[in-house]
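Task: complex structure prediction.
Instruction: return structure tokens for all chains below.
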Amino acid sequence: MRSLFSLFLFLFAAVVSAISASGNRLLVILEDVAEKTNYSKFLGDLESRGFQISFEVPKSESLALFHLGERSYDHIILFPTKAKGLGPNLTPNILVDFMNAQGNILVALTSDLPTPTSLVSLLAELDIQLPADRTGLVVDHFHYDALSSPDMHDVLLLPPPSATTRPDVKDFFGAGAGRDDDIIAFARGVGAVLGSSELLTPVLRAPRTAYSYNPKEQSEVVDDLFAAGEQLALVSAFQARNSARFTLVGSAEMLQDKWFDAEVSKVGEKKAVKTFNREFAKRVSGWTFNEIGVLRVNWIEHHLDEAGATNESNPKIYRIKNDVKYTISLSEYSWTTWNPFTLPGDDALQLEFSMLSPFHRLPLTLDAAHSSDSASAYSVSFRLPDQHGIFNFLVNYKRPFLSNVEEKNTVSVRHMAHNEWPRSFVISGAWPWIAGLGVTVAGWLAFCALWMYSAPVGGKRESKKTQ
Amino acid sequence: MSLGFCFQSSFSANPILLFAGFESIIHEFDPWFNFRATKYLVANGFYNFWDWFDDRTWHPLGRVTGGTLYPGLMVTSGVIYHALRALTIPVDIRNVCVLLAPGFSGLTAIAAYLLTNEMTPSPSAGLLAALFMGIAPGYISRSVAGSYDNEAIAIFLLVFTFYLWIKALKQGSMLWGALCALFYGYMVASWGGYAFITCLLPLHAFVLVCMGRYSTRLYVAYTTWYALGTLASMQIPFVGFLPVKTSEHMPALGIFGFLQLLAFLDYVRSAIPSRQFQTFLWLFAGAAFGLGLLGLVIATSAGFIAPWSGRFYSLFDTGYAKIHIPIIASVSEHQPTAWPAFFFDLNMLIWLFPVGVYLCFQQLADEHVFIVVYALFGSYFAGVMVRLMLTLTPVVCIAAAIAVSALLDTYLSVKSPKPEENQAVEGAEGKKAAKSGLKATNKPVVGVYTTWGKGMIVSALAVYLLLFVLHCTWVTSNAYSSPSVVLASRLPDGSQHIIDDYREAYQWLRQNTREDAKIMSWWDYGYQIGGMADRPTLVDNNTWNNTHIATVGKAMSSSEEVSYPIMRQHEVDYVLVVFGGLLGYSGDDINKFLWMVRIAEGIWPEEVSERAFFTPRGEYRVDGEATETMKNSLMYKMSYYNYNNLFPAGQAVDRMRGARLPEVGPTLSTLEEAFTSENWIIRIYKVKDLDNLGRDHSSAAAFERGHKKKKVTKKRGPRVLRVD
Amino acid sequence: MRLLTLLSLTLLGFGSAPTLAAAKKTPEERFQHYHNKALSSAPLKLADASYRELTSAPRDYSVAVLLTAMDSRYGCQLCREFQPEWELLARSWTGGDKKGESRTVFGTLDFGDGRDIFMSLGLQTAPVLFLFPPTIGPHAVASPEPIRYDFTSGSQAAELVHSWLARHLPDRPHPPVKRPINWMRWISSLVILSGGLTASYAAWPYVLPVIQNRTVWAAVTLVCILLFTSGHMYNHIRNVPYVAGDGKGGISYFAGGFQNQYGLETQIVATMYGVLALCGINLAIKVPRMTDPRTQSVALFAWSGVLFVVYSLLLSIFRGKNQGYPYSLPPFM
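Output:
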């Protein structure tokens, strides 16, 4: 009942703020507020999706991400700035705190300006490395835009990211771009190298022939290569354990109006095509600001699944070897609505029943009876192990680009009570003993009766004793 | 009437002493669990208590509490509580629990009175025994108000069972034997020390048989007791089939069989009066006894009968526990007893005790043999284990009472003998009595001639007795009536200062943490955290799972990198340590630390090594010279974290161990300090969650402190490429 | 590669002649050589050179070496206690593994034979048990350094060392320790037993009165009780010293502190308890049985006087153990 009520509450909330699953206060940091005209289409798109945008410059006095310990904004976009640092209000620690408070950040870099140090150290904490001296430029002598950079080769033309090698990852960024001539233009951007952190996922990788160099120091000869090929991540996504999202876009220019409308042509092809940048920017920002790929656990229910029992919901305690049923309801947010969550590809949603280590690890199957238009229920029935203790129902579903689901419900599993064992007369092996019991009792009674009725013969013994 | 006085005195002496200092509070460690269990019993009824699965201890294993405790104590107070309620006396269960021990100490005094009266015709002996029993510090330690422990009722049951046994033996009465079995069953339900009775009664029977005192009285008393008592004891789930399966119960079974054999032989002997046949029969009996013993040994080695439990075994092979079961050896109550402890607990009774035992040799009836056997074994066990002083105290009181009453009876009689009469009698009677036992008692009693001699002895005795009362009062008020959760100290000006850190910390836990926050601490504090803070614990004083305790020991004695996964796996939220360095409190965790290491080493000899905590010169140090393993251990870090800040730079001192600590204190990255009590005795740390950004804790903590991550531009070895 | 191995072996061997010769052998040959030797006499008696050769890396076998000092000059009690256990372990292991499947060699290096090794290892104490794990082959470990066995808790039974070895040599056969049946001991104990039975049968008429004598039993009982109540078991378990110096050249009879005691201390206390008990017994039993009034008065006075003084002394000793104990009797205030 309670879960149903909360479900309605959630639905209601979803209708009211149909922009992002987590608030609409967006802060944009720019070198100069006037610069926002460069990004007018990108920001206009965001505004039309319901975000309330505030603009600030990094060194501004009034800039504060927290007010009385609460976040003042839900999301931040950091466009490139000239200064070496970002001032006392945007130190890496504050940005980390912002993420720990479930705020989302989108950072855009450019090769024209060195990256601010505070961003570099923030990225280092996320296991993302930038080129040395905070400057780098990604070039590709095979996949450049023949129209805009015939000499510098620093505008890369890339196909939209397709579903990566993993079949269990949902394709959020390239899906629907079916036409072959959808092309993303990545202009004068910085490539980053991602560490092996499992929270990091590259969204857009450089082509095999791309490399990164420092145009200031290595203009003549590239001796110490920072990174090349697919190791260079141009757009990368980071999702913290609390599902706070962070996106690094290597090229701020690709979000600018000029690249939204520009026409580009690949090397060797005469035909100029319109870029896919606007749609791609929408998807990247939409993912970062919790508009897509957000999972929600509506309710979790487990109960005794045995005939004749009361089978109330979510009891605190079970008995060993009980049959139980566990159901979890999940929804996925997609731009404006909560939809039922369907598992991608051949992925499986698993339930662990664990104490210290899992005793069961079972796949949850779609339960149509409890699903609705906005939520899908997954359930599994199983028998509890023959071990008492404090167990957890644990659903730990963490996939790239989907917000984390880690749901732990603790129940106690008790031992058999003294009156829950089969009675002795039910066990056939006990019958000889029960029979023995009866024989002993009968024999004792018979002996007593015999003793009582066989009185001593009389005077003989009496007289003996007296002697 | 005078008995009533004794009862009253022993009942009223204790709580008054207690309440003088502190409010009504449960003491020590175990009583906290007993109190909690009693509350559960009262709230949920007997059957739920019987099937109680406690999910707030031994996280995440839980404890089948109903089946692993001795329910006698809880059921007793539950019955009293309901009886008082039925009489419309509104009483709180806590008050029942707090006052149960003094109440039962009164009953113990009565039982001691009855038992002593069986030993000697002198009427004063029983009263003296009751008095001694009421105030002897060795027993008062468990009978003060608030000491809500199994022993509180078990000692009464012990003495009363012995009384019933003597009664049954003397009269050869099945009724008394059955009563004895009944109280034996109650004893089994109350305390693990029931094995003392289980072994002492067959031993007594065996000694009697060896002395050639087999009788039908013995047969009736013993068989009645054994058959009914064993059945009664098997009703307790915790005991179950142990009486027929383990070695410590085998003597009782063996003697039972032996007595059957003897009874049979006795019958045959009375039927066939032939001397040769008798000799043959006795040989037969001896052979049967030997065969039975052999069979027992074979059955034990073949595994049909479980060998002695470690705790029991360590009583005989005194070095056993230290090597094989450190968890038993680590308990302070299981240490051997030094002589000052004997004198402290028994005072002048300790030297009156042999006198009384000697007096028992005078007549040496069956019941006196019992006292002798009890005295011998009781004093042996008390010497091996401090806590068994408790089982020795009753026999000491009884023997001493016999001695004092013999003295008083002799020297208090007003009648003085006339010298001439006795000189004449001496020659005649001297030879007659020569046969009976003791050489000293060959001559007849004459009496004391001089009045001044009588007066001197009586007044000296009075002085000793007064001194004894003073001693008992002093010991009780100083040592036994202060609950160990509250420490009392004296300020320089002589006023009393109460150190209440334990309760402060437990109260903090109760009010500031989630209700299901798991607290990890060393097992000593488990019951108190469960009782006072009402939070789940990992291990507690019911040390049933050595591996789980060793896990906690390993977490405490390893470095943070090793401990953190253990704590995550066990879902630990807070870690509690006791630190006495600031106050000079000796019972702290650093002093217990080696036991944690040893217990952990017993399970993981590869990962934890006691040797690594000692400097190359074999010292156990905590200062700058401490070993790296010591300095990196979680326990060390938690104890001394931020301790430096209390002192001027470089002058931090551990007052307990008198060590100057290194200038730079330890750093913690996986834990954060949550609470430190007023005198730093209790320190509580919160276990951090996994880092939100996926970093390891040490680099996350370094980032928090403002260190920038070192740039990894200098590449060493091949670059690690990302593959996905 | 082979050349390198040889070179390193030569370097390890410090150029001593026998090592050089042995260095030509492969680890396999070395193992066979020593294993065959060991089959006849385990553990091997090693010297400087053979120790170096046996333990030199690379090796595809494990070596367990006991470094000991058996000569009575060094007074190593532990060495002599452990030696038979060690020999038993080595014999039964080698005997149970004739084919050398566990690839383990047992050796003993006495200080007299291998002074240089002791010096180079910087060993100050003996015995030391090293286990050299294999450095090549299927069971190779990363570090060629030996593993040291801990002798901290006194002499060890062969079984304990065996389990330690087994723990460090996983996935290999571990021949169990076989204790030989000690026939001599059985025979001698049987003879003693039967002799004792005969003797007791012969002496029965004389022994029986003693056994049946109540005074003897009473005395034995009282002595036991006095021993136990004066903390004898504590001495037995804790191995406390008999007496200790007081730091000023004298002897302190009483240990400081409530939880400590010396051996002599408990004997003094037991004696005092005994005297007190004797006084009590005499006052309760003997004195009222005296027929002569004068003797009785003297005895009464004497016994009660002794009782008083000794009790006073006992209280004062206890005050010394437990600071702050307030009660005392004259004359020892």
